[in-house]
Amino acid sequence: MRPFVNPAFTGPVILGNPNQWFNPAAFLGPPNNSGFDGNLGRDTLIGPGLGTWDLSFLKDTALRERLRLQFRAELFNLLNRANFNTPNAIAFTPGGVSPTAGVITSTSTTARQIQFGVKLLW
User: Tens digits of per-residue pLDDT, 20-46?
Assistant: First the structure.
């Protein structure tokens, strides 16, 4: 169920902090057992973005006429940027505001990874 927009709320809705990505005070929960969705539009809140740089180097070395050695280095998430998952979207529980509303508990990518490879081509 979608919540209602709190008309009395002033201030930023998106806080941008992994401990609380959005401010749940900006919304009002629907009345119990009302069966109605709130007036907040679908896909209104925007989660954290995703940014990653991958880089690859390749070097071919001729050993003989038909024999080559290939060295490869691959770097994933080169800048080691923390890419957060979407926040917990459940803002209201039957008892009121959920304590985990807007909390981000994981990342969507891993830390920087580097791998090397050698291949013999004939």
Answer: 999 999 988 877 666 677 888 888 888
End-to-end CA gap in the chain = 62
Nearest to 89 by CA among 105, 65, 107, 110: 105
| Cα–Cα nearest to 89, from 108, 105, 102 | 102
Contact (CB, 8 A) for 54 and 76: yes
- How far are the Cα atoms of 26, 53, 71, 85, 93 from residue 18, in angstroms, in the given order? 17, 22, 40, 9, 21
The burial class, CB within 10 Å (0-12 / 13-18 / 19+), for 36 is exposed
List pLDDT tens digits, range 56-102: 999 999 999 999 999 999 999 999 999 999 999 888 887 788 889 99
